[in-house]
């Protein structure tokens, strides 16, 4: 449950279409019995790195959507 709440918090920083695609992959792989903890860790790491590198610029730090 902690992992899931952290995941929800992380995707709240992402744009809507990114959140939808991450959810889609999550549910597909979860249905395929992939380890959910491992998968959540991977998604959290990759989405946060992607978000920071692609979407954040120094002038945007005060207004993260």
Describe this structure in words.
By secondary structure, this protein is an all-alpha fold. It has one domain (2-55). 71% of the residues lie in helices and 0% in strands. The protein has three helices and no strands. It has helices spanning 2-11, 16-31, 36-55. The protein is globular, with a radius of gyration of 13 Å. The model has no long low-confidence stretch (mean pLDDT 64). The chain crosses the membrane at residues 20-49. Keywords: Membrane, Transmembrane, Transmembrane helix.
Produce a short descriptive summary.
The chain has helices spanning about 1-10, 15-30, 35-55.
What descriptive keywords fit this protein?
single chain, 65 residues, mainly alpha, globular, membrane, transmembrane, transmembrane helix
Q: How do the helices and strands line up, and which of them pair or pack?
A:
Blueprint: H1 2-11, H2 16-31, H3 36-55
DSSP strand tally: 0
Order of helices and strands: HHH
Spans where pLDDT lies below 50 across 5 or more residues: none
Percent strand equals: under 5%
Major sheet details:
none
| Amount of helix | over 70%
**Main structural class:** mainly alpha
Transmembrane segments: 20-49
Keywords: Membrane, Transmembrane, Transmembrane helix
């Amino acid at each position: 449950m902690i992992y899931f709440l952290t995941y929800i918090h992380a995707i709240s920083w992402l744009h809507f279409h990114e959140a939808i695609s991450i959810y889609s992959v999550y549910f597909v792989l979860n249905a395929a019995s992939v380890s959910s903890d491992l998968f959540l860790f991977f998604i959290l790491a990759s989405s946060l790195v992607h978000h920071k590198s692609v979407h954040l610029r120094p002038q945007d730090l005060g207004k993260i959507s």
